[in-house]
Design goal:
elongated, disordered N terminus, five-stranded parallel beta sheet, seven-stranded mixed beta sheet, binds NADPH dihydro-nicotinamide-adenine-dinucleotide phosphate, alpha/beta, 29% helix
């Protein structure tokens, strides 16, 4: 719908549509004001789709939220993001998700999750959410822009945009991702049982994963670029007391060796410039994750590293009707199964929120 002009009638239309919520809901109308002055205004409006439950992101958290939301008749719509299926599509075999006794390929598992979500009526759409304007009101409508072009309205939003593992950025590392280079020891460590591996990083994640790998592998070499670990003292203690774990300080990866699969590493000492080669079959990168929260900055509460903050044991953010699940709000566990668990919680939280809003509306109209 387009309202153009500066007449009193046009202004009355605008006022009616802007302030009469029931009219807005009935016709699902929203507005984009391009120019508005006292002498002259021009209003472009477009019919914005109204979605009861909008899910952003298509990893295990997003799909699980979709399954629960669809079964609760919230008619969820999911926008998949740039990497449909999320981080699991970049992994090979998933062995630790309950219910798959023989393991399952990460991409195959995500296709199964999508099918399951669609079976109950979830609309899965390829699209990237590029901007949000969240309402701070209880029962308010959230505006969400997809692909920098289409705005939709959502009564509830479930954010499951995940986190992206950081990599070193070496061409040889990128080429061998999925061929022995991994960013998750808990997911992929088992494939290197009784083999020699290396891990890069000196934080808590690297320390925890190095000791985890040491339980499975014959030898673990931990490469730390500084001359000290950043990990907590307790974790450092564990690292230094693990027999088959060797820490090499001031050490960086110069190149990952191997054509199809990892066969070794060339390491450089960043103090002396000395290079050495070691034989390994698996390389784990544990140099941190970046939560995908850029578009929520200034609207949602985040910790100093950008992870969304949820309230207590719930998935509630600081904005009513906006919930966060999966790795975007969890820097500690980061597993497919824990992400799926919080996806379920987010859908239940959204369902309860909508029930409260609807019952309040009923009371206020009586
Ligand atoms: P951190 O940012 O804490 O550590 C990253 C590590 O990777 C640092 O040692 C850093 O080196 C190193 N690094 C970064 N970039 C490179 C690079 N290009 N090449 C080589 N090394 C690099 O990330 P974590 O994932 O370890 O931890 C994130 C947060 O989660 C922390 O707050 C941590 O305490 C917490 N956490 C807690 C756990 C627990 O309590 N059980 C378990 C896991 C994480 P440098 O020190 O030189 O910068």
């Amino acid at each position: 719908m387009v309202i153009a002009g500066a007449s009193k009638t046009a202004y009355q239309w605008l006022k009616l549509l802007l302030y009469n919520k029931s009219v807005c809901i009935k016709f699902q109308v929203s507005f984009k004001v391009t120019t508005f002055t006292s002498r002259n205004f021009y209003i472009m409006s477009e019919t914005r789709e109204r979605i009861k439950c909008l899910i952003i992101g298509s990893g295990p958290a997003g799909y699980t939220a979709a399954i629960y939301a669809a079964r609760a008749d919230l008619h969820p719509v999911m926008y998949t993001g740039m990497e449909p299926g999320g981080q699991l599509t970049t992994t090979t075999e998933v062995d630790n998700f309950p219910g798959y006794p023989e393991g399952i390929d990460g991409p195959a598992m995500m296709i199964d999750l999508q099918k399951q979500a669609e079976r109950f009526g979830t609309q899965v759409r390829i699209g990237m959410v590029t901007e949000v304007q969240f309402s701070k009101e209880q029962g308010g409508v959230h505006q969400v822009c997809v692909d920098n072009s289409t705005w939709v309205e959502a009564e509830t939003v479930i954010i499951s945009t995940g986190a992206t593992a950081k990599y070193l950025g070496l061409p040889s590392e990128q080429r061998l991702r999925g061929g022995g280079v991994s960013a998750c020891a808990v997911c992929d460590g088992f494939f290197y049982k009784n083999q020699e591996v290396a891990i890069v990083g000196g934080g808590d994640t690297a320390a925890e994963e190095a000791t985890y790998l040491a339980n499975i592998c014959t030898k673990v070499t931990m490469l730390v670029r500084k001359d000290e670990l950043r990990a907590s003292k307790a974790m450092q203690h564990r690292v230094f007391n693990t027999k088959n774990l060797e820490v090499k300080f001031n050490s960086e990866v110069d190149e990952v060796l191997g054509e199809q699969v990892v066969e070794g590493l060339r390491i450089v000492n960043n103090k002396t410039g000395e290079k050495e080669e070691i034989k390994i079959t698996g390389l784990f990168i544990a140099i941190g994750h970046k939560p995908n929260t850029e578009i929520f900055k200034g609207q949602l509460d985040m910790d100093s590293t950008g992870y969304l903050i949820t309230s207590g044991k719930s998935t509630k953010t600081n904005i009513p009707g906006v919930f966060a699940s999966g790795d975007v709000q969890d820097k500690e566990y980061r597993q497919a199964i824990t992400a799926a668990g919080t996806g379920c919680m987010a859908a239940l939280d959204a369902e309860r929120y909508l029930a409260t809003v609807e019952s309040n509306e009923e009371v206020s109209t009586k």
